[in-house]
Amino acid sequence: MKLKKLKMKVKEKLPHVPGWFASALMIFFTALWSFWGAAEMYHEGWWGPWYNRLPYLAPMVVMVIPSLVAFRWPLVGGILIISVGTFAIFFFGAGVAIIGLGIALVGGAFVIDGIIKRRRASASEEAASSWHRKWRYRLLIGLPVLIFVGVSAYMLPIVLTRVDDGDRSARLIEGHGVALIWAPEGPGWNWRQPWGGYPSWQSVALYGMPPVGMGDKPGYGRQGEGRQGLENAVFATEAQMAETNLCRYLSADGATLLDEPQDIWRMPTTDELVRSLVRRGESAGCVWQGEFGEHVACEVQPKKESPLWATDHPVVYYWTADAYSESLGYFVAYNGAVNATYKLGGNPRHSYRCVREP
User: Going by DSSP bridges, is the β-strand pair 337-342/328-333 parallel, antiparallel, or unpaired?
Assistant: First the structure.
C-alpha cells in the first residue's frame, strides 16, 4: 500500500521535474552573475561618471528578464533562453561554447516544462504548484538583491576612501625595497589610442621596431583572418620588450616620444611594480614570490590611489616588462593580484607606466 502511494506521488511530481530543474539552474546562474557583476563593478568600473558602472549590472538583468518570462510562460521563455545560448555560442566562439550550451539546455528544459503544462493544465494542478511558483520568484529577485547588498557593504568603504591628490606629474615612489620615478601623464602613462583603448603588451614591446610607432609590425600579430589568424599569431618576446619598448623613446621630461631611443625610461618588472604598490601615498609593503596568478602578501591592502594610479582613469592593471609565456604577458592589479593575459589584447582596463631611476 505504501509502495503504491509512493509510486503515485512520484508519478504526480515527475512532470514538474524539468521546470524545477531549469528554474533552479536559472536562479543559480543569476546569483552567480550578480556576484560577478557587483564585484567587477567596484573593482574595474568604479571611475568617472556613474554610468560607467551600468554595464557590470547588465549580466544580472540579462539573466533575470528571460527567467521571469520562463517562469510565467515556460514555452516562450525557454525558446528565448535557447536563443540567448545559441547566440553566445556563435558570437563569442569556443571560449564560451560550454556556457552557451548549458544555457541552451536550460532553455530546452523550460520548453519541455511548457509542453507538459499545456497537456496537463488544470485548476487543481495549478493550485498544487503555487508554492513552487512563489519560491522561484522570491529567490530569483531576492538572491541578487542580497548579493549586491553584501558585496556593496564590503566594497563601498574601499572605493569611497581612495586617496587621489590629483598630481599627474612624474612621481618618486619609494616602495618596499625599491625607489623609482614613474612617468607623468602623457605617452609614458595611460596613453589612450585613437580607437579609445590603451596599447597592448605587444604594442608597447614592439614600439621601436620599424616602422617606429604603434602601427602594425610586419610579421607580427595575427597571421591571417578569423580564428586561424589568431592561432597562427606571432608574439613579441621578453627580449624584444627590453630592446624596442616604447619607454626607451620617451624624452627626459616624459612628455614626448622621440624618433631615437633615449634610454632614460624603461618598463618596470613585475617585482618592481608589486613593491611599488601604495596605500594612502605610502608603500603597501608588498612582495611577489614569483608565482603566476598570485595575490601577493602585503603589510597593508593596496588600493587604486595616487601617486601610482589615477582614480579618474579606467585603468586598474599595469603591464610589466616580463613575459609569462610565448603568448602571455604579465600584469599587476592595483590590489596586488599578479596575473598574465594575451599579449595582443587584455581589456580596456590594461595600460602601462614607464619608470626611471631617481
Answer: antiparallel
